[in-house]
């Protein structure tokens, strides 16, 4: 076909010309009539259009006509929306969506790699079925990027009771086997399925592990459940004769796997795999007593040395405590963390700094990307209207949808700031609280979506919610909702990320993809970040992805601002603001940019048989 135009918005009237040849056209489709502004179209594309087999009528139109069509299309969008209200029996983010699948517009222009690998991720989280934070997003995004490059990828994760079975396509029981734990062989089911087109293997033990309403915090012993899971994944590979090139483990939860592999399974029949560990956050290092490690069949006492699983914190203090993350650093063939800045930070401070320095040769910093299939405002199934960088009308609808649904004022031009975050100290809780008051005082609106694992923090924010949620400017929503998070990124003008430290951070990248600019947080010298223009602190991955717009030294990458500067810019320079929105939406923070660095790491350690 000469020209392929994909319709990204479902019932709405705006669509994206996703094919590169058409990517700069302004297109509106309405009543089966396509209008393309040829002003933005190259000669070769015009030629293609002339020869195109699109059924719709195509004609050149003037700029005035384009503006008229845009106004008309916005009115059309507005008419199409089933506006929510705070008194709705079912809150708008819990409405039934026609699918929970991401409706992927799979990019077909990605070059396949010549040397193909088989990678199995072993992980505690995967977006969207078992996600708590960025770990889930990263596993899904990296897996998809590798699949698109032609590699074979499976994701192994616990079959948590809270996983919605409807969210898994082609779910079927693949094998039943037994895996060792604490003197018993536990009967275990392995299911296969597809999640947003990515193959998954779900491990379900016939005991109490992984039961409960949430991914974490069930009434079982979490550390022991993940020790079991780490061994059960290797046991499954062993009994099924599955030998990937790479087993990619993540965080402390799967930190025992490299020990189990090199000290046990490679003496059985698993010999091909090499192990990559990604550390997403050094704060959690999997403190494990020696007798707990015994339960998965290893001799815990053998690992209680500084060159194995004792870290700088426990040595001489609590030597019976092992660190699963330290053990995994020592035993993995390669160790990756999630940004170059965080790599440097972790080499200079923290209990694992000396272990990382000793293993510096195999330690890499690779910036996370975002899954641009799952996070795509042009096709996102959770949005009331879709949009793209060349026509952001749908974004206005998304903002008003939120405002109406949550009972916020929706007249006039008011900056809307969102903060979507786990409510833990790392995320700058005092700065979030400060921002709430500051924004209220300066005529903005703010929505916080977050959940606190610590009861005291949850209570503190509940009290704040009680205080602020009565008015028409602030909403503090204390829960986890994937659907609402998509709507917030889309409706926001600014995304606030005031983290005290941030290994990488995805919220600022997702915010940009959805046209929310970053800004810096006023009155705090430390902050330089963003309000959907990201407003962030200069730390870890935030320093690698958000660049101050008022810093003239690197205008080509500038995309962030302080809060006060962002507010006055938003209010006083609406046209310039609209340009910033378009600019940040086009920044490529996708995995396509960085997955190749992981593939280089994989290739550097794989063995060829
Ligand atoms: P972290 O991994 O430390 O939580 P990241 O910024 O790397 O931080 O990733 C956070 C991810 O979790 C983002 O996709 C964000 O949208 C999502 N998220 C955080 N809190 C919530 C919540 N309460 N509801 C929905 N999504 C959330």
TrEMBL record:
Residues 413-507 form the Glycosyl transferase family domain. This is Starch synthase, chloroplastic/amyloplastic. GO terms for cellular component: amyloplast; chloroplast. It is found in: Plastid, Chloroplast; Plastid, Amyloplast. Pathway: Glycan biosynthesis; starch biosynthesis. Residues 119-346 form the Starch synthase catalytic domain. Keywords: Amyloplast, Chloroplast, Glycosyltransferase, Plastid, Starch biosynthesis, Transferase, Transit peptide. Belongs to the glycosyltransferase 1 family. Bacterial/plant glycogen synthase subfamily.
